[in-house]
Amino acid sequence: MDEPFQAGRQDLAGKYTNIAEQFNQADRRPTLD
Questions:
Q1: What pLDDT, on the 0 to 100 scale, is given for residue 33?
Q2: What DSSP character marks residue 29?
Q3: CA–CA separation, 9 and 31 (whole Å)
């Protein structure tokens, strides 16, 4: 019963790290549009 929940958490963690990396890349760019 734990396994689907565990897999869902890993999937969420992957999505959040992706988003965090995108924010990090955006932070490195100059803030001029």
A1: 58
A2: S
A3: 33
Whole-model pTM?
A: 0.44
Distance separating alpha carbons of residues 9 and 11, to the nearest angstrom:
5
Stretches where the chain sits below pLDDT 50 are: none
Residue 8, Ramachandran bin (φ over 0: left; ψ between -120 and 50: alpha; else beta): alpha
SS3 category, 1: coil
Please tell me the distance from the alpha carbon of residue 25 to that of residue 13, in angstroms, as a whole number.
18
Q: d(Cα 24, Cα 4) in Å, to the nearest integer?
A: 30
Token code pair at residue 7: 């897999």
